[in-house]
Amino acid sequence: MVSEKTNLRSRGIYLLPNLFTSGALFSGFYAITSAMNNHFETAVIAIFVAMILDGLDGRVARMTNTQSEFGAQYDSLSDMVSFGVAPALVMYLWAFGDMGRVGLFAAFVHTAGAALRLARFNTQLETADKRYFQGLPSPAAAAIIAGFIWICLEHGYELEVIKFPALVLILSTGLLMVSNFRYSSFKQIDLKGKVPFIAAIAMMLAIAFVMAQPQTMLFLLFLVYAISGPVITLIQRKRILQERKN
């Protein structure tokens, strides 16, 4: 009797973190359907909502000690839809629809890059250095695409003018996701520890600054993060070469 109860309990899933994951998955799906109906601003906002929910599910799981293999796999599938398929389709429907195979190929590079990035992350989960991600994380790549579209919509840029930059951008995000560049995971930051009062003020000012121009600031923040990967990798390699010479 005890073993049967244990088996039944083990077959269940933790509700709270998976609710956040389901919300992120729905946001990615909603972004796709919004783009299909030419509501592109709603689509990019939905991608950013998916990012917030994706960030919360893991933290909630750790805080409530409800991590599970099911949750990890479900999170990856949600990420694939929200940060792999959704941004590529939104960009394709918005800017690449009349570019034929070139636009189709560019959008697929981002989707394939996200799939490969997530597969590599899952296989290296136990051995990877927790301080860094290998390759640009898929949420950051999606944020760059969504932020770019949001800026162009906000300022009313002509599609003919921004098609080539959009093409370069989506190819770059796809390739950066499968690169060997190292990106800070920020997991070494102690969110539970005490900080100086001035740090709290600076954080509030930063949030206010982002909220004043969210489309521009979010795009720039994630673009800087994308550039930081090659910079961090080059600095670390240079340091290793100097240590070997000494």
Any overview of this molecule?
The chain has helices spanning 2-11, 15-36, 40-63, 69-96, 101-123, 138-155, 159-177, 197-212, 214-245; strands at 132-134, 182-184. It has 246 residues and is mainly alpha-helical. It has one domain: Up-down Bundle (Four Helix Bundle (Hemerythrin (Met), subunit A)), CATH 1.20.120. Strands 1-2 form a two-stranded antiparallel ribbon. α4 runs parallel beside α6 and α6 runs antiparallel to α7. The protein is globular and about 50 Å long. It starts with a helix and ends with a helix. Residues 1-9 have low confidence and may be disordered.
Sheet of most strands = 2 strands, antiparallel
What is CATH's topology name? Answer: Four Helix Bundle (Hemerythrin (Met), subunit A)
Please trace the helix and strand order, writing H or E for each element. HHHHHEHHEHH
Number of E strands: 2
The end-to-end span amounts to: 66 Å
CATH homologous superfamily grouping: CDP-alcohol phosphotransferase transmembrane (TM) domain
- DSSP helix fraction: over 70%
- Approximate strand percentage: under 5%
* CATH structural class: Mainly Alpha
* Largest beta sheet: strand ordering: 1-2
Annotation field: number of helices: 9
**Overall 3D form:** globular
Low-confidence stretches: 1-9
Category from helices, strands and their pairing? mainly alpha
What does the radius of gyration come to?
A: 20 Å
Second CATH tier, the architecture? Up-down Bundle
Q: Could you say how many structural domains there are in total?
A: 1
Please state the average pLDDT score.
Answer: 87
